[in-house]
Amino acid sequence: MGMQNYQGFVNFLITLLLVTTFLIILARRLNSVIMAVIIQGLLLVALSATLGWTTGIHEMYIAAVLTLVVKVLIIPVVLIKAVNIVAIKREVESFLNMKMTLLFAVCLVFISYLATGQVIGKGSGLLHGALPVAVSLMLIGLFLMINLRFPIMQIVGLFVMENGIFLAGIGTTIGMPLVIELGIFMDIMVGVLIMGVLVFRINQSFDIIDRKNLRNLRG
Amino acid sequence: MPLILLALPLAMALLCLMVTDRRLLGAISIVGLATIVLTTVLIARQVFTGSNVVWGQFIFIDALSSLILCLVGIIGFMVALYSIGYLDHDIQEGQLSERRLKYFYFSLYIFVFTMFLVLVSANLGIMWVAVEGTTLATALLVGFYNKRNSLEAAWKYIIICTVGIIFALFGTILLHYAAVSVTGESGSLDWQTLRRVARQLDPKLLKLAFIFVLVGYGTKAGLAPMHTWLPDAHSQAPSPISAMLSGVLLNCAFYGIIRFHLIITEALGPQFSSNLILFFGVLSIAVALPFILVQHDIKRLLAYSSVEHMGIIAAAVGLGSKLALYGAFLHMINHALTKSSLFFIVGNVCQHYRTKRIIRIKGLVKTMPITGPALVIGGLAIAGSPPFSIFMSEFIIISSGFAQGRNVVSSLILILITLIFTGVIYATSNMALGTPPSRVKVGEQGNFAVAFVLIPLLPVAILGVYIPAFIQTILQQVTAVFIGGNQ
After folding, report:
1. Above 0.85 for ipTM, yes or no?
2. Residue B386 phi, psi (nearest 5)
């Protein structure tokens, strides 16, 4: 089975990944952010399953199942719980306004395409489209973490960054060896759980959870 | 043997979860860490007397890893001993409830386990998983007091370090990408194999990978400008944990950088990665300086001093001559011992004075007859005054820099550490001398707490005037790893 037949479909999935990232940026309500997070997780599941089918590498199916469990089930559940316990206001607040945020994100995508083209050169790697999108996801994830006030949104930013890494992994070398992939998934899962615990505790000791309150330690 | 090393802390962690009584927990943790020290020493003895420890595909221990393994074991053991008195005091003061004590020991052992995993893994991917594991194991320890500031510190810590470490993962993936066509799936992240085939890898990708890894693990190692989590986490964590973070965790993260550095040096020659490490090293020393000079919080002062000392170690590794490397690892030992004992001392002081602010701590020599003088000694030692061991290693590093003809860098380091010296001495003398505030009673924090401020200072004083033969051999073998002699 040749890769070529599926190249179009895979590229379509990768493009959708970028689209969902923009959905996360554009969403005004936390519920819609979590919705976009779930969709992005599902896209990654579809992507790794498709790659597993076309390349015949069984490890990709395991990666797909793990992604399903960790990124479509556990992380969204933690996020929803955190939002329910913590959120008084369910609107997303950002430091920059929406126009600037969008402009910035588009610039980041542009930079990623330029930079990856420079370094890797065209035609190398398994999927042409994967690496620039992966780097875009990393940069936009980082930007989300800086731009958004709500600690829960920082978890979402991390999630987007990690998806970028995952895409880079499967896009360039069809994933890392299985043992390492398992370890990475465990780290993400435990990490998000601990962040959930911390958000809960911060909420208990501050009345309103906002990063404005997390600014005592300086100098 | 390496399996025992990994299984012990895990088993101890689970055991601690089942116990609630604080006396029993203390006893268990001392016995556990004593056994762990013994194991690390046995492994180190095997490595230093001949052969590297190899187990299967994933475990490889050479001189470099066993040096840091021993440091983790020894500092961990002292932390276990010191924690008992420290936590007892916190429980009496109502800062902690006895019920939560088991989670402290559980996290401590998981922390030790993840550091061991970093050091023994032969595979850069597993090493990454373990480094991220250290962040997760300690995040809740940093926020253990559940106060506003400690939760803020824990949040900053987990977010900044996770982001940093994600960059390191990207670097690891790039290296994997560069290597997979040469080595195949199985060996593509095995650092020994990579070092062997380094010359066949794509240099562009290697450079990019190294930059990402340096930023990523550099965040964890406390190199400026990615160090911002460090003063918060070190100052807000319970003092035994601060000692652990400062004394060994930073070294473990720096170990990750060294492994990549060795591969890159093999492929691209010594210039590229050495210069980057040197640059970040000197930058860290420079960034720490102003914060040390105007610091108001004693634990933050120690934290910035850790940034400085990691900078010195990094600069020495960047200089890269045999003498500089010898100095770097001697400095690593010295810093681990001195800084952990200082955190013990300051832990006692802060509990006794109930504050961390330097201006509110006065007359220590009068109020705490042993801890007070110990603070003076520790302050002198960490600042780098003779005859203590840090002076020795700093002297070796700087003179090796001059010997290489890198006068500008060496003078810069010399000037910076001289200025930092004044800052540290000024702060410690302010605390040690003067009239103690009337609310503070004269007395120590109990015999148990006092013993452990003195024990680690002993080797610090000895190593300054005399380096025993076995430490010489150890350091020579560690530097031999860099020129490929120990493969």
Report:
1. yes
2. -70, 150
